[in-house]
Each structure stands twice: as C-alpha cells, then as structure tokens.
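Protein Entry — a single chain follows
Next Lines — sequence and tokenised fold
***
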Amino acid sequence: MRVVRPQSGATLDTWLSYLESLHPSAIDMGLERVRQVAQTLNIESSAIKIIVGGTNGKGSTCAMLEAIYLAAGFKVGLYTSPHLITFNERARINGEIVRDLDFVEQFEAIESARAGVSLTYFEFTTLAVLRMFAHASLDVMILEVGLGGRLDAVNIIDADCSIITSVDIDHTDWLGDTREKIGFEKAHIFRSNRPAICSDPKPPQSLLDYAASIDADLWLFGRDFNYSGDRQQWAFAGRNQRRNAMAYPALRGANQLLNASAALAAIESLRDTLAVPQQAVRQGLISAALPGRFQILPGQPTVILDVAHNPHAAAVLEKNLGNMGFHPYTYAVFGMLSDKDVESVVQHIQGRIDHWFCASLPGPRGLSAEMLAQKIRHAVQATDLDEKQPLALSTCDSVKQAYLAACELANPDDRIVVFGSFLTVAGVLETLGRA
C-alpha cells in the first residue's frame, strides 16, 4: 500500500504514524542512507557536541550533563531516546521540551530533502532534531546513542567528546552476543585526538584496542578519573581537577556516582572551551531529573519505577532494592519485550520479589503475560533457591491491570517495583495520570 505524505498543517501524531510506515523495518543499521540525506540539509553547528553511548546509564549521564551546563549558563540541546509518554520528551532546548509545531516543521524539511531515500523512524527523527539544534544557536549538544554506536544514526555527528557509560549484554541480534563484540560497536563513537570517556570499570579489550587504533584521548575510570565518598558527601578526581564536598546526585541508585563521574570527566576534558564553575556542578547534580530510573514515588505503599530491561540493569536494580529500608513484601509489576533476555533478568532480581504480577505489553514485540510467566517459572527452577517456597505469580492483560492488582494486595509498609521495559513504566505513569 502506498504511504501518503501528511498534508500541510498535519499534526505531530499524523507525522509520527507516517514515519512508522516509511521503512520496511524498524531497525536498519547503517549510515549510508541517513548520511546521504544529511548532506542535503543544513545541520552544521558550531556547538560543542557530546555523544553518550553505553548499555546502561546513558540517560542519567545525559541528564546530569544537561543540568550542569544549564546551571553554568550555557545554551544546551539534549536528544535522548526512547521516550516514556510523549514523543516530545526526546528533545529539549535549554531545558524546555520541544513543541509539536517545531517538530512538524523539521519533519516537513526532512521529507522534502530525502528525495525518496528510505529512512527508519529513528533516522528520520534524529535528522529532524539535529537540524533543529543547528538552527538554535546552541553552545553544547548532548546526543544519546540509540543502539550500539558504529552504525547508529547519531554517529554521523563528529563528536568533540564521546562517553561510553557501560558495556554489557543487550540487543544481541544487532550488536553481538559478547562484551567484546558489543564493546567494538560502541567504541566507534570515539574520535581521533578527542576525549573518549569510558566509565565502565572493566572495559572490553576491543574498546581499548579501537581507541588506541584511532589515537583517541582515552579517559578510563580508575586511571584518569575516580570518585570517593562517605555518608554525607562525595568527591570527584580527574586528571587535573578535583571537585570536593559535593552533595549526592538527585538521581537515586548505586551507579549514579559512576555516571556523575563520567559527566564530570567529560566536563573537565572540555573545560578550555566550556568552563564550568563548581557551583554549577553542585546545582546541576542536585537538580538533574530523569523519570523511570529508580524513581521512588511519594506515598504508601512505596512504588519504585525503573526501566531496567537487561541483566546488567536488573543487577543494579537488585542492589538498589537491597539498599532500601525494610519492607515486609515486594510486589513486581513486570512486563518485557520478546527480544530481551527475560530469564537472566529474572535470575538477577528474583531474590527480592515475593509476588510477580506479569503484564502483557502492546505491539508486535510485547510479550504476553502468559509467556512471561512461563519464562519466570523456568528461570526460578534453574536456580538453587529454596524450592519449598511456592512461586507467587499472577498474569494480567495490561500494565494498568497488573499495577492495580498489586496495589490491592500490598499493605502500606510493602513496596511495589515496576520494571522490565520503558512501556511498563509508561503504563504505570499513565495509570497514575502523570503523563
């Protein structure tokens, strides 16, 4: 069926539906098509460009960078993905979410420029954001990699500084099934003779080798930068700069000092161009916000929202849950996509869960609650946990149904942890009217 271009004055939702139907597959790795269209557009900018990649921690690192540079008085553009509730969340200029009309204007320009070149949804929207940022007179652009690095559309940008937060197993169909293969893909956001920050404490050799082969200015956690802290405050140490007596970041979780250290290393590496005073760092770290990353909602029972959807993120979530105060029971509202390693995620966190509420997720990639329950049973049986404890497990047709069922069962001093996918967290936020 022929796809018809939206008419003049079409809404953002109409355009997004159109973009979803433009390309035969949702993911099509490669830079040839997107680079071809980019060459016909005016997306050049004098702004300092920071690209952030990694398996987990990208969003938090981006949020901290944005908050710090804004506090320092710079004009900042931030591009992240995916979104939780509305598409507009993917782009902010000077801390403000971009309006529908501004996106539509860019989509019309990209559509006119692509001259029949087929673009995926992500490629099309990435070009739109890059063009928007180019026309916004920014001082700094912060761009989150969508998938991998080497063949991700964001990688058409020549970064002034690149950050890799972590390397772990995810998206194996596209990036490979080992940390070495995945590290090689992610390392390609590094650039010759420019700062290349890696905050993974044990980076794959493939990442180190690639950085050396292009003569990148590699900053490694534990060698070029580090952090220390006590119960009240923490400190950052870089190559030539220390930042002491800082309050802990507003973003909660065991890995947030690692993410903050990556952000501060990048800021130090760029300080000759973008000087950031200590007060801006302090203010930025305590004001940075990112929904769905170990987000604890007010009220009782305690509700924790976390988009953890791979084994590494699940292990971090398990640690964060263990660091919380005592709760008699923990109920999981759990939904995942079919291309994720469900059983490994479950094995990392099952010791913290007393009752699973499995939710069916929408879309062709969404797992049904019944299939998810089957995978949970298989994962639990594969461990050495006490088999005398019966597995408490319920299946629900939607995230909303699962959340309401958990709320009905939970006592005020219990907790509910919502995780497994951006879609799972979004479903609860929509149920709570926080969209």
Q: What stands out?
A: The chain is about 35% helix and 15% strand. The radius of gyration is 22 Å.
